[in-house]
Structure formats: structure tokens, C-alpha cells
Design a protein that fits this description.
Largest sheet of chain A: 2 strands, antiparallel
Number of helices of chain B: 20
Number of helices of chain A: 16
Shape of chain B: elongated
Radius of gyration of chain B: 36 Å
Radius of gyration of chain A: 21 Å
Order of helices and strands of chain A: HHHHHHEEHHHHHHHHHH
Number of strands of chain A: 2
Oligomer: heterodimer
Distance between the termini of chain A: 6 Å
Helix content of chain B: 25-40%
Strand content of chain A: under 5%
Structural class of chain B: alpha+beta
Strand content of chain B: 15-25%
């Protein structure tokens, strides 16, 4: 059969197995990610100049901290890429259950203590359950379709898959985190399209969605007021009201013009007009200091990375692997798109960071873990193709 | 380590299905979404980039205008009529108040500031809080708002003392004006005030700061560009927290130029008080509106320009505390106190006979020797053989020439001069219409029917009817077919300054000046000189004249008539001991809509001394009799002039 059967060889061969498969490792993808992190470090340095002037090698330095997290993330990617992703799909339901539980837990804790927090505070590290839930949901969807012949043609199958994604997206939505719940549905759409969903089914569902949109809209307005409270509690997210930062980020982006104002020369950023310049609004900082040209380079890197992800889906050895790869591509694509769209004022302000680039450990580590899963799929594709 | 092996068995049956997904869609999604972002980015950075770059600059470079000191205004003798004062207000910059980024207890800190402000200014802390929150909600935390306005000096000092300990709070001083000359000067000086929203864009283009006051009326408005001066500025680079990063450039403001008026403050006050005290009350009703013009016929210098009732123009600066008064003033529909009556028109009545007589003498249909016997009225046989009777104001029962007719203000003589009697006596022209047109032409030569060009806004041009005007005006709904025809009665009405004739006291004074100065129509002016802050003359307002086109003999005859009016005729009460006065009374019938009856305007216009005229005075009351009410007032004004006004 396949190489899978040889896997029962036991621990005697395990020491050698650590060094196996790296010839199939996607170095282009990994290197692109590392370059993006490097861009992030440059921007974080520039964006935190006015806030931090201590030594570079202190753990208080935002750049140093990010380097540390990047190292943890890369290590995690390497480890995960050695794990057969089938372990993950195998335990998909367990992980999915844990994901929902953690989201519920944060809700309960939020009510009792933190108001509207999206993460668990574990000393220096914050863990966002929604990051974990995203991966768990991707695995669960892949697992579900792979058990149903990888086929979403059947309406029942399609609806059940929607039922898998809905509770997670719903829990995130009431946090409230509109952006992340959109990411969830985008992942679902990506997976069911690739899994071969009937177009007419999708069209009918889209029509139904449009029909209930007005009701959702009313609901969302009520949510928005909750969001305003969240803004008050978590001032870092949008300290001077929605309008202020949207305006300042627009000015920052536009004033960068073609070639930018130059490294550490963006006055919107350096004089403190642009808030959260190293986190959610880091793309505005990039636009201001490096201009249209700089933005095109970074967007090109993202496209390269995502195309390598699509390649992973293309060569995946089985439907489960393919669908996991598709889910992860959609995850990175949508987070990137929404974050940049917010920076360009064509999407309401949400708390989604720019993958690989924004300052912040937990999102960096989790995005590298996602890459690790993609690598795991790439490194194992031949095992199936051999037969 | 076994889970790191490739030894895990996939869920059952997976290998029987090859991956079959259509990944082209995914590639299209990736490229499509990034294309959207690239287009938007191109629009923002390339298409609108320059605009955003400018906004970015404005964001951190604060050009703070330093307002210049406004020019002063003095009367002809150097008496100050205005004073520059600082208007103190408590200003809050919401952005600079303690905020959540800096302090945990920022809310309490802010509230303590509001309480302190309440203690000093009296504006409630809750109100201040609400205003700050409104501004922040509107995303305008970077614009300073006023917490309290018009602070007293004590309040201002108290605020200044504690402002240093309250981030975001400062004492703001905006330039204000105090009008110290008295309410008699309000119509002339006008006032300054905040810009109207609709003018803000235009003024911004002229470099006005948004809190910079502008002249709103009177000389303050007319001479705004002189009085304002040049705004200085200091440009600083500032970060988002209001910290000054660097001083870039600065330029000191240049104070505005000052105005020296032709007005004599004492005469202005005396005239206004006199008019107020002598508002006539007679069988014709009670007057509550009056006006007087005193001017130099040889230069056009206006020595006094009075409009009754007066008002206090400090009211706008104190509008917060005097709002009821201001509202009453703005809604006053009895006297319209804000309107300058010296520049508003009314029927000029018999003062207009100067125009009619001049026209007759110049056109030649009468001469200095022409005389008519005038009884009580003039009877004219119309084309239908019907006899029409046109009344004089009294039964003269004497033969009179044009001098006597002016002195006694005979209507019948003026009827015959302007329109003839359609039989033996010829009017100004060969027929009724031509006579009307010629009379109107002479009226316009005397400056009627158009503004005088005085250096004030809001002047009424008045109205001179003629056949063409009537044809255009007396048509349409409410008029009959023959109504627009120019009739003999129109000539007669116009000849005595009634009917459709309207003129302002200033126009009447200007006509009088033309007789006094030998036939020159002078442009009146309030301001004599514009003076630089260093005291040098920037420019002098030179007299401007137009020739009316009167012969010397005509002028002499008219003067003799006017002299007779005061010496023995209708204007006798204008006589004064210190100079010989020549003048003309006027009593114009009009229909008063307020009292719903026919009543009369009272006029007197004259000049003195007769031999060498140096002053013209025109007095107007909305209700009264010219010879009885206006003439004595004019006399008193002239008396004051000769005793007190040093030239």
C-alpha cells in the first residue's frame, strides 16, 4: 500500500525519521513568512520609537519581544510540520469541542471579570481561544468532508458543515468580534467550494442570507453599542473613538504617496497621530513610510505565500489534507485582507492583526503553527501519490 | 516520538478518493482580493496622495494666527470713539485634558477640572462635561471649545492663576471693542462680531482666523480692511499630545490703521439729544423717528449724521447678558432703531421745490422775473372740459416770483413751473410727459434716485418717478389700463416732492450743499483720514464733485428764495443770532399705515452763513410740520455749530 503502512516500524526508526521528509519541505513558503516577519520587525521598530527608547536586547523592547515570539513560532512550525496532520484530523472533534469550550469559558470569565476580553491572560502570554478555534474548525470541517467522500454536493452534507461552523462563528460574533466571524464563514465557503458544493445550493443560501440581512443588520447595530463599551474598556483598540483612528490612518496611508516618507520619517506615526501603529494599524505605518511601492512588495510577498498554500492544497495526498490546506489559505487570506481593508478604510475597524507583521505573540505563534500544518501536508503528499 | 512518524493510519477509506477540488477559484480569490486592495491603495496614495500629504502636514504643523490690534476711530478733534478690549473666555482643548492613556483616574481628574471651572466662571460642571463629550463624540477633540464667555477681569485673573495646573484649560483672549463715544455714534460706527458661518469660507481664504471678529456694520464694516491690520502667525510643529516639537516660523502682527472722522463728536451728541428731546407731537400725531445731517458743502465732510432713536452698539459684545435687550432691538418694528434714518428715504416734500425752481429757471419756462398771482388753489380745465382743482397749502393771495414762492413754499407756483396749466402757461416741456421727464432729469442731476456714495453701507437710493418709470411700474395685477399713463397730476405731485418721490435726508442735504457751494454735487464722507499705527497719514479722503449744471443766476435766485424763507417766510423759526441762515421747509403728506391715516413728514434743509456758506443742515421728523418742528431744530443745530465747532 502506501508508506503509511511502513510507519509501524516503531521507535527504532524514529531517530532517523526526524531528518526525513525535509527535501519536500516548502522552503519558499517558510522563507517568505520569515521575510514578512522581518518586515514586521522593521515596522515595529519604527512604530515604537516614540514609545520605547531602551536597549534593543531587553525583553521590554517590542522588537526583541517579537523576535523571541518569531523564534518560538518558527520552532513550532518545524515541530508541527513533522507531525502527521492525520493525527490532527483524527482528533478534530475533540479539538473542536475544546475550541467551543474555550470560547464559552472566555464568555463566562468576561462576564464575571473582564467585560469583553478576547483572550486568557497567562502572565506575559495572552492566549486567544479564537485563534485555536479557527484551526480546530478547519480540521473539523476537513475531517467531516473527508469522511463523506470529500463531497459537498449533497445538500444535507452542506448544511451539516454549516452547522459545524455556525456555533463557533456565533460565539466569536457575540464577543463581539465581527471580523473573526467573517473569517470563519470565509473559511467555510472556501472549503465547501473546493469540496464541490453544488453551485445552486450556494446561490440559494446566498439569497437566503441576503433576505435575513436586514434583521442581522438591526441586531448588529445593537452589537455595535456593545462594541463601543468594549472600546471604552479596551482603550488600546481604538483610544479616541472610531472616527479618530480611521481618519488618521487614511491620512497616514494617503500621505505616503508613491515612495513613502522614508523609514522612521512618517510624521503621522512618529508624532503619535496614528494609534496602535505597530498592531492593527501597522499597514498604515508601512504605507506612510514606504509608500505604494513598499505596499506592493509586501502584498506580493503575501500573494507568493498564499499561492504556495494553494500549491499545498493542490498536491495534498488526500481530501482531508487538501481541505485543511484550503482552510488555512482562507484563514491567512481573510485575516490579511480584512486587516488591510480596515487600514484602507473600506472595512469597519475590527481587532484583526496583520498576519506575520503585526506586533503580538499569540497571533504570530498561531499563524506559524498553521504554516506548520501546511508543511505537514506538503511533506506527506508523496506518501499517497506513490500508490 | 511516534506521532512524528509518518506512521499514522489515515481515517478509513481516505485513499480511495483522490483530491478533486477546483483550486482555480481559490487562486482567483487570492488575486481578486489583493487587486481590490491594490486599487484602493493606488487611489489613496497616487490619485489622492498629494491631498493627504497636505492634510498630514496640517495635522502636525499648527499655524497659530496672532491677531493684530484693530485700528482706532476718533472724531475730527481726536476724541476716541472706540477702545480695544480683551474679551476673556475659558477655553478647553478636549484632546489635552487628562485621558485614559495617561491616567487611570482620568475621569475623576477631568471632573475636578470642571468643578474648578464652575467655581470660577459659574458655568455648571455638568454642562462643561457635556460639551466636552459632545466634541469628542463628534471626533473634534482637537478643536478648542469655550467653557465660559465674557469673563470679568477678576474671573480671568483667577482662571489664569489655576490654568497651569489644569491641562487642557486656558484663558483665551479674543479682541473686542468697547464703544465709548455713546449711543449717538452707533449707526456710524457699527460693531464687530464673530463671523457668520456662511462667510467663514470666504474669510478663511483671506487669512482670517476662525475666532477673529470682523466688522459687521457702519465704519467697522466699510473700513474692515484698514482697521483689521495684518495677522501675524507663529508656526509650530506639534505631536498628537499637543507637545511642541519645534518652533518653525513666526511673524509679528501689524496693527490696523486708525480712522479720523469728519464727525464732530460734540455736534453729533448735541444733535442727537436735541432731536430726541424735540420729537414733535401735534395734531398730526407723535413722531418717534428723526434724522439730521450736518455737512460741509465745500468738501462733503459729514460733521454729524444722526438717526433717532439711537441704540447702544456695545450690546453685541455683551449679547450673552443682554440677550433680551438685543432681541427687542432686532424685533423692533415701531422705530426700526437699527436702521440709519439719515440713509433711509421718505417723501421730501417742499424741500424738493429747490429742484423744481432750478429746472424752471434753467429750462427757461420761468425766469427770475416771472410772477403769478397765487390765491388758494390752481384750477385746470381737463381735456373733458372738467375743472380740476389743485390746492396750495394755504391761501397766499399775492403775486409772487420764484423767490417769494420758495420763501412761502407755494405749491401752485411750482405746479405752474413744472407742468404749466395746459393753456397760457407752459411747463418744463412741450407736453405733460416731456415736462415729467425733464423734471426727473434735473432731480437726478441733484443726486436723487441714486446713492450718494457716502462711506457707509445700507444707503437707500430713494426714487424719482418719470413717465417711463410709471409705464413700467403701474402695470400688472391691481392696475387698470390707464393707470400707467403720466398725467398732469404726476407733474404737480413731483414738483412738490410728493406722490412717488422718495429721498433720504442725506440726499436732501447734498442738494442743499450744491446750492450753497455754487452748483457742485459733492460726495459726502464720514472718514477724513486713514492713519497708520505710526501716526502717518495713509490716505486722505479728497472731496469729489460732479457739476449739477446750474448757472450762477439760477443759484443766486434760489439762494435768495431760501434766504427769504428764513427771513420772513415759512422757515422763520430757523433764524439764529450768530449767522444769516438760508433754508427751505418741507411738509410732505403721506399715508401712515400704522396709524391708518394721512399725516405729514417734517423737513427743513438750509445752509449758513448766507454770504459764505460753510455748513449745511438737514433735519427730518417722520411726523410733524416742517416750518414748526424741523426749522427751529435746524436753527439750534446751526447755533451750536457756530458757537462750538472749531474748524
Amino acid at each position: 500500500m502506501s508508506s503509511v503502512t511502513y510507519g509501524y516500524g516503531g521507535s527504532a526508526r524514529s531517530s532517523a525519521s526526524v531528518w526525513r521528509g525535509w527535501d519536500r519541505f516548502d522552503y519558499v513558503m517558510a522563507l517568505t513568512a520569515v521575510v514578512l516577519v522581518g518586515v514586521g520587525l522593521v515596522l515595529i521598530y519604527s512604530g515604537s520609537l516614540s514609545l520605547y527608547d531602551g536597549p534593543m536586547t531587553s525583553f521590554a523592547s517590542p522588537v526583541f519581544k517579537q523576535v523571541v515570539f518569531a523564534c518560538i513560532g518558527i520552532a513550532a512550525m518545524l515541530v508541527v510540520s513533522k507531525i502527521d496532520y492525520h493525527y490532527l484530523t483524527h482528533y478534530a472533534w475533540v479539538l473542536y469541542g475544546l475550541g467551543i469550550l474555550s470560547l464559552l469559558a472566555i464568555m463566562v470569565m468576561g462576564q464575571s471579570a473582564y467585560g469583553s476580553t478576547r483572550w486568557f491572560d497567562l502572565g506575559p502570554v495572552q492566549i486567544q481561544p479564537s485563534e485555536f478555534a479557527k484551526l480546530a474548525t478547519i480540521l473539523a470541517l476537513a475531517r467531516y468532508f473527508s469522511e463523506h467522500g470529500g463531497d459537498a454536493k449533497d445538500l444535507k452534507t452542506l448544511l451539516i458543515s454549516l452547522a459545524i461552523v455556525s456555533p463557533v462563528a456565533g460565539l466569536v460574533f457575540i464577543q463581539p468580534d465581527l471580523g473573526t466571524s467573517i473569517v470563519f464563514f470565509a473559511i467555510w465557503i472556501g472549503i465547501v467550494v473546493v469540496a464541490g458544493a453544488n453551485r445552486s445550493h450556494l446561490l440559494v443560501m446566498a439569497a437566503m442570507f441576503l433576505a435575513v440581512l436586514p434583521f442581522l443588520w438591526t441586531f448588529a447595530i445593537a452589537e455595535y453599542q456593545v462594541d463601543r463599551v468594549a472600546v471604552l474598556v479596551d482603550s488600546e483598540e481604538d483610544p479616541l473613538g472610531d472616527g479618530y483612528n480611521v481618519n488618521q490612518s487614511k491620512i497616514a496611508v494617503g500621505s505616503g504617496q508613491i515612495f513613502g516618507k522614508g523609514f522612521t520619517n512618517g510624521d503621522q506615526t512618529q508624532l503619535g497621530y496614528l494609534k496602535v501603529a505597530t498592531k492593527d494599524f501597522i499597514f498604515s505605518l508601512l504605507s506612510e513610510e514606504f509608500g505604494f511601492v513598499g505596499c506592493m512588495v509586501v502584498m506580493g510577498l503575501f500573494i507568493l505565500l498564499l499561492m504556495r498554500g494553494v500549491r499545498a492544497a493542490q498536491i495534498a495526498g488526500d481530501p482531508a489534507g487538501q481541505l485543511v490546506a484550503v482552510g488555512i489559505v482562507m484563514l491567512i487570506l481573510m485575516q490579511t485582507f480584512i486587516n488591510i481593508a480596515v487600514n484602507l478604510s473600506i472595512f469597519p475597524v475590527t481587532g484583526i492583526p496583520l498576519p506575520f507583521i503585526s506586533q503580538g505573540g499569540s497571533s504570530l505563534v498561531s499563524i506559524f503553527i498553521s504554516l506548520g500544518i501546511l508543511q505537514s501536508i506538503v511533506m506527506r503528499h508523496r506518501a499517497y501519490r506513490q500508490t | 516520538m511516534s506521532f512524528m512518524d509518518e506512521g499514522f493510519r489515515a481515517p478509513g477509506g481516505s485513499s480511495r478518493n483522490r483530491p478533486h477540488g477546483n483550486l482555480g477559484m481559490l487562486r482567483i480569490a487570492v488575486l481578486g482580493l489583493f487587486l481590490i486592495l491594490a486599487i484602493r491603495l493606488g487611489q489613496m496614495q497616487i490619485v489622492d496622495g498629494a491631498n493627504y500629504a497636505k492634510r498630514s502636514e496640517q495635522n502636525h504643523i499648527y499655524q497659530k494666527n496672532v491677531l493684530p490690534t484693530r485700528g482706532l476711530i476718533t472724531d475730527r478733534n481726536g476724541e476716541a470713539l472706540v477702545q480695544n478690549v480683551g474679551v476673556y473666555s475659558a477655553s478647553i482643548l478636549p484632546e489635552a485634558l487628562p485621558n485614559d492613556v495617561q491616567f487611570d483616574d482620568w475621569k475623576e481628574m477631568r471632573y475636578r477640572i470642571y468643578l474648578k471651572l464652575e467655581e470660577i466662571t459659574g458655568t455648571s460642571a455638568l454642562e462643561i462635561q457635556a460639551r466636552v463629550e459632545d466634541a469628542e463624540d463628534a471626533g473634534q477633540g482637537y478643536i478648542a471649545i469655550k467653557a465660559a464667555d465674557n469673563l470679568t477681569k477678576e474671573q480671568a485673573l483667577a482662571l489664569d492663576e489655576v490654568a497651569a495646573e489644569m491641562p487642557g484649560v486656558s484663558l483665551a483672549i479674543t479682541p473686542g471693542r468697547s464703544y465709548i463715544g455713546g449711543p449717538e455714534f452707533s449707526h456710524i460706527l457699527g460693531y464687530i462680531g464673530p463671523q457668520f458661518a456662511e462667510d467663514a469660507a470666504r474669510l478663511d481664504g483671506q487669512g482670517y482666523e476662525f475666532n477673529e471678529p470682523i466688522g459687521k456694520d457702519g465704519l467697522e464694516a466699510r473700513y474692515e480692511s484698514d482697521l483689521r491690520g495684518t495677522v501675524g502667525y507663529s508656526a509650530v510643529e506639534q505631536d498628537a499630545y499637543g507637545r511642541q516639537i519645534a518652533a518653525l516660523q513666526s511673524k509679528d502682527p501689524v496693527p490696523g490703521n486708525s480712522l479720523v472722522l469728519a464727525i464732530d463728536a460734540g455736534l453729533q451728541r448735541y444733535t442727537a439729544e436735541l432731536l430726541e428731546d424735540t420729537l414733535p407731537s401735534s395734531e398730526w400725531g407723535t413722531s418717534n423717528v428723526g434724522a439730521a445731517v450736518v455737512m460741509d458743502p465745500n468738501t462733503g465732510e459729514v460733521l454729524a449724521l444722526v438717526s433717532i432713536p439711537t441704540y447702544d452698539n456695545n450690546i453685541w459684545a455683551e449679547s450673552k447678558i443682554r440677550s433680551a435687550e438685543l432681541e427687542a432691538l432686532a424685533n423692533d418694528s415701531t422705530t426700526y432703531a437699527l436702521t440709519n434714518k439719515a440713509l433711509s428715504s421718505a417723501a421730501p416734500g417742499s424741500t424738493f421745490k429747490i429742484v423744481t425752481s432750478s429746472a424752471g429757471l434753467e429750462e427757461g419756462n420761468i425766469n427770475a422775473g416771472t410772477s403769478f398771482y397765487v390765491g388758494c388753489n390752481l384750477e385746470v380745465k381737463g381735456v373733458n372740459n372738467e375743472i380740476y382743482t389743485y390746492k396750495d397749502w394755504r391761501c397766499h393771495n399775492m403775486t409772487m416770483d420764484v423767490r417769494t414762492a420758495l420763501a412761502w413754499s407755494s405749491n401752485v407756483f411750482m405746479f405752474l413751473t413744472a407742468g404749466g396749466d395746459l393753456t397760457a402757461t407752459r411747463g418744463l416741456g412741450k407736453d405733460i410727459e416731456e415736462s415729467g421727464a425733464i423734471l426727473a432729469t434735473w432731480a437726478r442731476r441733484f443726486g436723487y434716485g441714486k446713492t450718494t456714495g457716502i462711506d457707509l453701507y445700507g444707503e437707500d437710493p430713494g426714487r424719482i418717478p418719470d413717465p417711463g418709470w410709471k409705464k413700467r411700474t403701474y402695470v400688472g395685477p391691481g392696475f387698470n389700463a390707464g393707470d400707467s399713463e403720466w398725467l398732469l397730476g404726476d407733474n404737480y405731485n413731483t414738483a412738490i416732492g410728493q406722490g412717488d418721490v422718495l429721498a433720504t435726508p442725506l440726499q436732501v442735504a447734498r442738494m442743499t450743499a450744491a446750492i450753497a457751494n455754487g452748483g457742485k454735487l459733492v460726495t459726502p464722507h464720514i472718514v477724513n483720514e486713514v492713519i497708520s499705527p505710526e501716526g502717518e497719514t495713509v490716505r486722505t479722503i479728497e472731496p469729489e464733485f460732479q457739476d449739477v449744471g446750474l448757472s450762477e443766476s439760477t443759484i443766486r435766485v434760489i439762494r435768495e428764495g431760501m434766504l427769504g424763507s428764513v427771513a420772513y417766510g415759512a422757515g422763520e423759526l430757523a433764524q439764529i443770532p450768530n449767522a444769516s441762515v438760508a433754508g427751505k421747509t418741507g411738509t410732505a403728506e403721506f399715508y401712515d399705515q400704522k396709524s391708518d391715516r394721512w399725516t405729514q413728514h417734517a423737513w427743513f434743509t438750509g445752509f449758513a452763513p448766507y454770504d459764505k456758506p460753510e455748513v449745511v443742515v438737514t433735519v427730518y421728523f417722520d411726523i410733524g410740520i416742517g416750518g414748526t418742528h424741523a426749522a427751529p431744530v435746524a436753527g439750534k443745530i446751526l447755533e451750536y455749530y457756530f458757537e462750538n465747532v472749531k474748524r
